Amino acid sequence: MNTFLCIDKPAGWTSFDCVAVVRKALGVKRVGHTGTLDPFATGLLLVAVGKCTKLIPFLEKDRKTYRTKILFNRTSETLDTESEMQVSSEQITVDSAQQIEQVLQEKFSGKIQQIPPKYSALKINGQRAYDLARKGKEFEMKSRETEILRSEILDHGSDWVELEIEVAAGFYVRSFARDLAEALGIVGMCGELRRIGVGELAVSGEQLAVLNPEDLKNSSFVLQPSALLDPREILTGLEVLEIPKERLGDWSHGRAVKLDEKMRSCEEEKQAEVLVTCNDKTIGLGLLGQGSLQPKIVF
What is the pTM of this model? Predict the structure, then answer.
């Protein structure tokens, strides 16, 4: 089985928990996801099954869309609700959405510098940052560039704000919550977080069959064919090239497929990666150029 599944991760589940449930439910060893969601967060987790796991690098850099509730005058060691909350002794209110909007436009639009949380999966000298933090080790998280593509205030109160943000890969919403509050002259943390989109995919999209991992744990659960997503539905940024069935043998054995006139109409001047189909079924990914199609990933 070579496919993708869209999981709506519940709070309290790790991304690995979701992968483990899919692995057991489908009886497939090779399963992975395209981007970690923190345990307290909910929302869209894209899971690759079988040889589709080899396509994960093409998806890890996809933009992400989140809805988040940021709490002001409160913070925690993990910058979320997973650790003990500390309430600021000085309660400062933010009564104006315009004040927040101004800060967003001035300091949190386009490319920005961001320091990731110490409780993150990033590696420091070969060790996960969260492991070092739990052991009480002293270490420094270096600032790195990321990007905010869009932000919108959905609602707000005197000590909180709800936002929808579209961001580049590698963006930490918990760090954003901390930094936004700091720019307003207060402390803050991430109170709620839901991923609603990955690339062109949306957790509420009608075209998607989004699965609850709790259902997959049920032995009587029947996985509908509509839940099995073809790579063409996921990797929408790649061109698709259909090869005739007479060339399927060459492709399956990893041999380059020479382009005929019809296939040459798809050829790029420079080498390009394309999804490859035969009889309208995705059979892998190839490198197109110089008059031939070279297999890179064969299903």
Answer: 0.88
Q: pLDDT digit string (tens) for 102-158?
A: 999 999 999 999 999 999 888 998 989 989 999 989 899 999 999 999 999 999 999
Helices 97-107 and 173-183, axial angle in degrees (round to 10): 110
Query: Taking Cα atoms as reference points, which of 14, 21, 11, 9 lies closest to residue 49?
Result: 21
Active site residue 179: no
Annotated catalytic residue: which of 38, 62, 80, 159?
A: 38
Domains of the chain: 3-62+201-232 (3.30.2350.10), 64-198 (3.30.2350.10), 238-298 (2.30.130.10)
